[in-house]
Structure formats: C-alpha cells, structure tokens
Write a structure and sequence with these properties.
By secondary structure, this protein is of the alpha+beta class. The chain has a two-stranded antiparallel sheet. The longest helix has 9 residues. The N and C termini lie far apart (73 Å). 16% of the residues are buried.
Length: 123
C-alpha cells in the first residue's frame, strides 16, 4: 500500500510520498525528491538534519555566480597567438573561417593562424 502523498516535487512535479527522501528549501519552501536533485540517500539524510537547506534554484538567485565554472573567469585568448585579449588595449576582429576572436594584427587574409595552417595543408 502506498503512503499518502505529501506534496509535489519542485523539479519533476510528481507527488512526494512520506517514504521518499524529501528536502525542503528554506527560501521558497518547495519540496524536492533527493533523486531529482541527484543527491544520494545518505547525503539527503544528512541534509535533512541541517536547519537551513537551499535548493539549487534559490542558490542561483541568491548567488548569481553559483553555477559559474572557474573557466568563466579566465580572460579570452587570441586564437592565433594564444595571448590574452583585452578589448580595452587591443584592436579585435574575428577569423572569417572559424569566427574565433583574434587580435587584428594576428589575422592574415582575415584568417587566424590555425585556420591558415589548415588551409595550407590542403592547398
């Protein structure tokens, strides 16, 4: 016999039954299946003992940089010379073949070095 549903999951919108591992967000008070959050049963049990748990959606709203990877903070590099690009210090353009950003002086015939090298291989 199934237990009585408690409420709907904030991700899959299916009912959460009393026997399911449930996490309730301290910000929006929505309930979530641990499996929908890709959290193991052990981790869910541990999180249930915490006074304040925040769902990933609320964390992203509270901390806009929550989902950024460390690579998102690295400056871009020129496709030709592989040196860092600074829009305030360099003239920039795009390779007409691969559309990657390059220093204007690094482009030759509107192509970056890797694209020029590739085109020379097949010439």
């Amino acid at each position: 016999m199934k237990s009585i549903p408690k409420e709907k999951c904030g991700i899959c919108e299916k009912f959460i039954y009393l026997h399911n591992k449930i996490l309730i967000c301290a910000v929006d008070n929505k309930a979530y299946h641990a499996k929908c959050l890709k959290i193991s049963r052990d981790t869910a049990c541990e999180l249930q003992t915490m006074p304040d748990w925040f769902c990933p959606m609320c964390l992203e709203n509270i901390f806009p940089f929550f989902n950024l990877k460390s690579s998102d903070f690295l400056p871009e590099k020129c496709k030709s010379c592989t040196k860092f690009i600074s829009a305030s210090q360099h003239e920039l353009d795009y390779c007409t073949l691969c559309t990657e950003k390059c220093h204007t002086q690094c482009l030759n015939l509107s192509l970056c070095k890797p694209c020029r090298d590739d085109s020379e291989k097949y010439s």
